[in-house]
Amino acid sequence: MRVLYCTDVEKSVLNTNFEKRGWQQVGPDDDWNFYWANVPTCRVIFGVESGYRMHDNQIISHFPNHYEITRKDLLVKNIKRYRKDVEKEGGPLGEKNEFGKYVHLDFIPTTFVLPADYNMFVEEYRKNPLSTWIMVKDAYVISKYIENPLLIGGRKFDMRLYVLVTSFRPLKVYLYKLGFCRFCTAKYDTSIQELENMYVHLTNVSVQKHGDEYNNIHGGKWSLRNLELYLESTQGKDVTTKLFDGMKWLVMHSLKAVAPLMVSDRHCFECYGYDIIIDNNLKPWLIEVNASPSLTSTTVNDRILKYKLINDIISVVLPPSGIPEAKWNKIPSREAYGNFELLLDEELAGVDISNKHKIDKHHAQNNLPKWK
């Protein structure tokens, strides 16, 4: 059987992968087996009005209500609810410190959704009136700015991690090892004069590529492996391991927070783009989760990475036959992982890194498996 694919995301890294496999492109109104779709298309397909029903030989690249984790106001709401739930259960995961902060689940900046949280925001602001806040106008979300980011070469950076979810119930999560750091082109400066300087504060490549110091060869990016080696040499191996394990921890628990709400349609998979900032205490903070991480290539290495990413996603989500099959148990062979590593498969025993070990009161993250 020849796989028929459809896509409304016209990126060469997608089409090159599909063509390499001998797949044939068709239109959205034709019969298709594999659809790499954008978010609006999925909204239409899963909408009640469409009446569309997928067959067993069809899979698509988004879950119907992915916005429970990719919309910032809902992400914050769901994580806060998850914290309260685990606290009620009385286990160590819900532990708080003397300041009322969650010891193990404190991985998003202090955030409020207005107008509902207005009074709480005012109370928090009065405690520290000199703090800086960022507002996401579309969703009326206001978050405390991470004012003490870890700097390398005097510049602020963030990380983009790719996280593949093939099922929410049972939860099946894979982390891509080839994520990267994105650097600002201007040196970090917290002065009021530089507060609106995008080249100092915003790591987005779409912004930084217009800066005078932008480098077209490396695109202002570092691989995660380079970051790991740099931190091991400057900060030590133990704290670096703890940091990378902490990133896995926040990925896992952000997904656990939304899993009960997700429509875990067996025809779906999704690759999320996690944006994470590290502070100068080597603590990772989850800034946002993207439903459609950019597949645009800004450098040669960028194109190679994104080509590999798509290739590895296809290998994980398809059964050994290479033919889309919604009834498949979604347990690929280790050889199919490529550059992915399995973080959690609730269907398999003994691989849940979030509960594998008893939580240490002060160093929960130290007990997690090492980043490979």
UniProtKB/TrEMBL annotation:
Signal peptide: none annotated. One of its GO terms (molecular function) is ATP binding. It comes from the Eukaryota. It is found in: Cytoplasm, Cytoskeleton, Cilium basal body. Pfam families: TTL. The keyword Transmembrane helix does not apply. Part of the neuronal tubulin polyglutamylase complex which contains TPGS1, TPGS2, TTLL1, LRRC49 and NICN1. Interacts with PCM1, CSTPP1 and LRRC49. SUPFAM superfamilies: Glutathione synthetase ATP-binding domain-like. InterPro entries: TTL/TTLL_fam. It catalyses: (L-glutamyl)(n)-gamma-L-glutamyl-L-glutamyl-[protein] + L-glutamate + ATP = (L-glutamyl)(n+1)-gamma-L-glutamyl-L-glutamyl-[protein] + ADP + phosphate + H(+). GO terms for cellular component: ciliary basal body; microtubule. Gene3D superfamilies: ATP-grasp fold, B domain. This is Polyglutamylase complex subunit TTLL1. Keywords: ATP-binding, Cell projection, Cilium, Cytoplasm, Cytoskeleton, Ligase, Microtubule, Nucleotide-binding. One of its GO terms (biological process) is microtubule cytoskeleton organization.
